[in-house]
Specification:
Blueprint lengths: L3 E7 L3 H11 L4 E8 L6 H14 L7 E3 L13 H4 L21 H10 L6 E5 L4 H9 L7 E7 L15 H5 L1 H8 L5 E4 L1 H4 L6 H10 L2 H21 L9 H8 L4 E10 L10 E4 L10 E7 L1 H12 L3
Parallel strand pairs: 1-2, 1-4, 2-3, 4-5, 5-6, 6-9
Antiparallel strand pairs: 7-8, 7-9
Length: 312
């Protein structure tokens, strides 16, 4: 089987780290590059964290690019209260030694997509959509080269996690999200409604520890730290594991369920800024532009994640 070529756009973040590890452990996917964006942490940390994760996985030949240091219009909002000051709190990573690629992430993304065939490359968006939107603004022709954009972001019935209405990734750069959601590309959205079903329970944490490898121990440490915020916030028996759902969808789409609907991004009201308004019942008559997932087989998801992490 020919691996599916993907680009991972990310702002690591412990859950981003698990997503990157899952992709690197999966022969079905060919990771062409990892583009860092400001989000969970500022850009200098997000790009160095991406390199730390690659080194942990033994993927020192992976290409990591630094992208946009701030949203398109608004000031940057970060999430150290969730992820810790490093973004990867819970495991003591050494400073990365693999080189950061010299090209800007947006330039590299445009060049890579323009050199690709029609509908060839899948973009996996794990953070704010600034890099993707800027690439589309710079070179609109890249849209025909994109096979699919699979994103973690937004919320439907679950609302938001940084405001009552908005999820973090979309709220950080709603104007970038609007560019992406009006691009005409094939879009798949993994919202909070799905990720809040994929909880890091104590039994699942123990499975990571039981892997017994440096990667397994690092995952156990990061997730032990990461889950405490959402457990306190939501009163659940574990924290949601957001970003690995994007990679899991590419590997096992059958464990997800959703619907093709019209999605709009709110960019005019401060109270609802960054809301993903999903017309689930088609009441507006707007044409569908995004497949929004609303269910996951969480047991199958963790079986896949742990089996692949154990390969590293």
């Amino acid at each position: 089987m020919t691996p599916r070529p993907i680009v991972i756009d990310t702002d690591p973040g412990q859950d981003d780290a698990l997503a990157i590890l899952l992709a690197l452990a999966s022969p079905e996917l060919a990771v062409l590059g990892i583009t860092a964006v400001a989000g969970n942490v500022p850009l200098p940390l997000s790009e160095s964290n991406a390199r730390r994760i690659c080194e942990l996985a033994g993927a020192r030949d992976a290409k990591v690019f630094a992208g946009c240091p701030r949203p398109m219009v608004r000031a940057l909002t970060t999430a150290e209260e969730v992820h810790g000051q490093t973004g990867l709190d819970g495991h003591d990573f050494p400073e990365p030694t693999m080189a950061l690629q010299p090209d800007h992430a947006v330039d590299w993304m445009v060049e890579t997509l323009m050199a690709a065939g029609e509908r060839e490359i899948t973009l996996c968006a794990l953070g704010p959509l600034t890099n993707l939107a800027m690439a589309m603004v710079m070179e609109p022709r890249i849209r025909s080269r994109i096979r699919e954009i699979v994103m973690m972001g937004g919320g439907f019935s679950d609302g938001g996690n940084v405001t009552p209405a908005a999820e973090f990734n979309i709220h950080v750069d709603p104007h970038a999200a609007q560019v992406v959601f009006t691009s005409g590309c094939k879009l798949t959205l993994i919202p909070l409604d799905v990720t809040h079903q994929a909880l890091t329970t104590p039994a699942r944490l123990e499975r990571f520890r039981a892997i017994g490898t440096p990667v397994g121990r690092a995952c156990h440490g990061m997730l032990s730290f990461y889950r405490r915020h959402d457990m306190s916030k939501y009163g659940t028996d574990g924290g949601p594991l957001h970003d690995p759902c994007v990679i899991a969808y590419l590997l096992a789409p059958e464990i997800f369920d959703g619907k093709h609907v019209a999605v709009e991004i709110e960019i005019s009201s401060e109270k609802t800024m960054g809301t993903t308004l999903a017309d689930w019942w088609g009441v507006t008559g707007a044409p569908p532009n995004c497949t929004v997932m609303n269910a996951i087989d969480d047991a199958a998801f963790y079986d896949l994640l742990i089996e692949r992490i154990a390969r590293l």
